[in-house]
TrEMBL record:
GO biological process terms, semicolon-separated: lipid transport
Lineage, broadest ranks: Eukaryota, Viridiplantae, Streptophyta, Embryophyta, Tracheophyta
InterPro entries listed in its UniProt record: Bifun_inhib/LTP/seed_sf, Bifunc_inhib/LTP/seed_store, Plant_nsLTP
Domain Bifunctional inhibitor/plant lipid transfer protein/seed storage helical: 32-117
Descriptive protein name: Non-specific lipid-transfer protein
Organism: Zostera marina
Amino acid sequence: MAYSSSVKSLIVLLLIALMMVITPYPTSALTCGQTLSKISSCLAYLDNKESSPSSSCCSGIHSLHNALTTTKSRREACTCLKSASKEIKTLNHSRITSLPKKCGVHLSFEISVGIKCNSVP
């Protein structure tokens, strides 16, 4: 049974529409809780209780960096971390700034407690 070109075109369009519906879209990168969880092992270093970041801290930093693939997700994480940092008064601000580098993560911007999250690329 031969189909006309318009029927074939309709079938192709329906298949494309079906694939778009069933293909999972990436979800929002991370919740604030997930973001905080990834770096929770860094608190001892950031609070001057350890002389260097632990391997689990750096693993969390790498994981967080790899999960934040969009400007929106980086800005959301920034807002979350900035808000959380205000709650812990004993954090060493210079350690916050140097943490990514100490863990071997290159950022195109500098982090600090005074960062303007809406300017994060």
